Amino acid sequence: MSAVAAPSVYAGGASVIAVGVLLAEFGMFRQALLRDQVRLYAAQSALISVLAILVAAVRHLPELYVLAALSAGLKVVCVPVVLRRLLRGIGAGRTGEVDPEPGWTEIAGSGSLSLANTVLLAIAVAAFGFFSVAALGIRSPVLPPTALAISVSVALVAFVLMIMRRDVASQAIGFLSLENGISLTALVVAAGLPLFLEVAFLFDLLVAVVVFELLIRVHHGRAESLSTADLTRLRG
Amino acid sequence: MLVVILLLLGAPFATALVSLRAPAAVAQAVTAITGVGSFGLVLALIPAATHRDLNYLSYLRIDAVSAVFLLATSFLYAAVAVYSVGYLARSRASDADFSRYARRFYAGLNLFAWTMLAAPMMSNLALLWIAVEVTTVVSALLVAIEDTDGAAEAAWKYILIASAGLGLALLATIFAYYAGAQVLGEHYNLSFTALLQAGPRLPHTPVRLAFVLAVLGFGTKMGLFPVHTWLPDAHSEAPTPVSALLSGSLLAVSFYAILRYYQVATAALGPRFPRDVLLVFGIASLLLAALYLLDQRDVKRLLAYSSVEHMGILAIGVSFGAPIALAGVLLHVLAHAAAKGNAFMGAGVLVRKFGSKRIAGIGGGLDLLPWSGPLFGIAVLALCAMPPFGIFRSEFEIVEGGFGASANAPAAVLIVLVTVAFLGLSVAANRMLLMPRDRSPGALSRGEPSAWMVVPVVAGVAVLLVLGIHPPADLTGLLARAVHQLGAVT
After folding, report:
1. Closest among B180, B68, B206, B65 to B125, alpha carbons compared
2. In chain B, which residues have their Cβ closer than 8 Å to the Cβ of A207?
3. Mean pLDDT of chain B
4. Can you give the pTM of this predicted structure?
5. Rounded to 10 degrees, what is the CA torsion of A76, A79, A81, A85?
6. Of A5, A132, B159, B398, which shows the fewest CB atoms inside 10 Å?
7. Mean pLDDT over residues A50-66, rounded?
8. Are residues B96 and B149 in the same domain?
9. Range(s) of the domain holding residue A206
10. Is residue A97 predicted with pLDDT exceeding 70?
11. Is residue A234 one of the residues assigned to a domain?
């Protein structure tokens, strides 16, 4: 058995940040309040920007500074602001008067499974992602392979979040955190991707967020709630 | 050629902007002119694309494969642009409502066509992904435009499922970059040509991963089982011209993206793995669609499941790999666009006439609609691969390629399932066209709602006949080059 070298400070730090991203994902998963989910999303996005800055500094990829700044501007500031405004607007519309605690809308339960069981399921899915990607043996020049395995776990947990939640806002946040998982993957295996493509991806995310917001408003306008319980007309 | 390409990229976008501001009548006219003009521009590109790959401004690239998909999209764009003139007339009560609806509708329709025309022109897998993603957000808004409970539900399911699918496709893009970067260095820009040239040297695991993720991700938008679930909802709740574009063009554009990954995967891994993956998804989609077609109550859902069926056929056709099967696949893209466009446009007239999307609420269409009744019947027969229409020729080529490549079992399954689908489609069409309505006929009089809703369908039948009986030499030349580019090997 060969001795395993201790990871460098950089690799260790990067892995810790990646784990933080995964923990934020689990946090969103178990969080019952939409406003806290948005907050966790912002924190998760901030962690990814920090990791991008770390990679830029250590691996000498100056383009990543720009990406980190743009990404933080969009995902830590703009998107959470849009989402909070949306929740506030809907909170007020729902009760017919100004809601004193906007965003404190309880999430409708998670369908057939209890919250504890869905968390167990998410843990199982995350473990599956983690170990199967590790087994693929994809090596990155800029980050330790653990980060790639964790990023895929984040994406998979985001899928579980989208599937299990029964309200449109949580589902949208699930999609956004899926995109965060993919950003993390991109940082690991595609750090050299030309900046303009990264910027185009971000712009695209912005367009998607606007459309999501619009459709959530349409849904809320018709169903008078964020719940997806009524979305059962179209079958067969 | 660059001027033609820039016009093709610029005109629909400019028309969308004009439609946002101009009165409905102007938007209608400009959209119809742009639609027909775009088809003309694509026709002008064909001779050049048959002889060489057109590369411009480092991010635009049109080869024979992309030209086939541009042809399908631009034809449908022209058809629905004309059809919409009749479709929108008198469909809203008050003038203010109508002009608001018309502005949104035309701006959305042109933007949607613009994104679908842009996608096959991208020289780079990242830009291709972005273009496909933009098609999703634009079309989700168009699905929601009817402002009914059903439309809101369909739009939400569509954007959520398609965005999640495209998330997987983005992962595919990233792994494709990773694979390329191993050979071409960190600073290559995901250019498709470079990736293809590096083919045999690409590392296998990331390419495999990228291909499977691409099939699953773009397959979500193409309507492959098991990620097709948004499709019948969106197709049935969208306005009819949008349904026609969704079905005939959007699914094809997503298939185009899969074909690009197929080319890279074949170059890197050899044909076996990508073909096996496509065969599994293709058979599963065809099976599901054939069974669902047997018991449909809604005419637009019926046609939507028929789209799943045809996408399954495309995937199976590629999995056969023989040159004639691939030629059949590309011809099928064109013929399906014309036939499905016709079927949706015909169904739109039926729905307008009878005021119901339920198959049981429609009857005696052949008597009451002197043009649209028979034309809808022809469209359904064309979809069922009856001679002398284009789909007969394309499916025949696909099946011949299957048997030629010793894929006897899949080819036989294909024939059986297509026959089951034929049964479902023809029983429903028979009920709508030939049998009297369940309820008393009421005061419905014989006649067409609008001539504008008939003209593009007649053009579609002409296209189906040309494709079926004698495809023009320019087209066969284009298809032959495209088949060569797809790396056909038996």
Report:
1. B180
2. 134, 137
3. 93
4. 0.94
5. -160
6. A5
7. 92
8. no
9. 9-98+108-222
10. no
11. no
Is A201 in contact with B127 (Cβ distance < 8 A)? no
What are the structure tokens assigned to B184, written together? 């071409």
Instruction: Write out the DSSP string of B213-258.
Output: HHHHHHHHHHT-TTS-THHHHHHHHS-HHHHHHIIIIIHHHHHHHH
Both B403 and B413 in one domain: the answer is yes
Residue B35 CA from chain centroid, whole number = 16
Same-domain check for residues B147 and B228: yes
Contact A208 B189 (CB under 8 A): no
pLDDT at B61 over 90: yes
Chain B interface includes A190 (CB < 8 A): yes
User: Do A201 and B159 count as a contact with CB atoms less than 8 A apart?
Assistant: no
Question: Is residue A159 less than 8 Å (CB to CB) from chain B?
Answer: yes
- What is the reported pLDDT for A7? 75
Quote the pLDDT of residue A93.
42
Each residue's pLDDT tens digit, B250-273: 999 999 999 999 999 999 999 999
Query: Is-contact B465 B379, C-beta < 8 A?
Result: no
Q: How many domains does chain A have?
A: 1
Q: Does B94 touch chain A (CB under 8 A)?
A: no
Q: A234 — contact with chain B (CB < 8 Å)?
A: yes
Same domain, B297 and B435: yes
Instruction: Search chain B and give the residue with CA nearest A222.
Output: B149
B351 and B475 belong to one structural domain: yes
Give the nearest chain A residue to B296 (CA atoms).
Answer: A236
A184 domain-assigned? yes
d(CA A121, CA B330): 43
Compute the nearest-CA separation of B275 from chain A (Å).
22
The answer to whether residue A232 is domain-embedded is no
Instruction: Give the residue with greater pLDDT, A49 vs A196.
Output: A49
Residues in chain A with CB shorter than 8 Å from the CB of B167 are 155, 175, 178-179, 182
Let me know whether B244 and B331 are in one domain.
no
Same domain, B241 and B387: no
- Among B224, B246, B270, give the residue marking a domain's end: B270
- Lowest average pLDDT, out of A6-10, B165-169, B204-208, goes to A6-10
Put simply, whether A119 touches B (Cβ < 8 Å) is no
Residue A32 lies in a domain: yes
- Alpha carbons A174 and A153: distance in angstroms, whole number: 13
Q: How many angstroms separate the CA atoms of B433 and B413, rounded?
A: 30
| pLDDT reading at B441 higher than 60 | no
pLDDT at A95: 39
B133, B139, B147, B160: best to mutate for the A interface, most A CBs within 10 A: B160
Which chain A residues touch B296 with a CB distance below 8 Å? 236
d(CA A152, CA A183): 10
pLDDT tens digits for range A141-179: 888 889 999 999 999 999 999 988 888 888 999 999 999
Q: What is the pLDDT of residue A3?
A: 62
What is the rounded distance in angstroms from the CA atom of residue B151 to the CA atom of residue B235? 10
Residue A28 has pLDDT above 60, yes or no: yes
Q: How many domains does chain B have?
A: 3
Handedness of CA B246, B389, B321, B283 (dihedral sign): positive
Determine the pLDDT at residue B147. 85
Instruction: With CB atoms and an 8 Å threshold, state whether B236 touches A197.
Output: no
Q: Both B364 and B485 in a single domain? A: yes
Candidate from A189, A214, A218 with C-beta closest to B175: A189
B455 lies in which domain range?
279-490
Query: For residue A78, what are its two tokens?
Result: 């703009």
**Whether B236 and A222 lie within 8 Å, measured CB to CB:** no
Shortest Cα–Cα distance, B168 to chain A (Å):
9
- Pick the last residue of a domain from B97, B121, B145: B121
Q: Which of B21, B37, B40, B38 is nearest to B106 (CA)?
A: B21
Determine, for residues B155 and A168 on separate chains, whether the beta-carbon distance falls below 8 Å: no
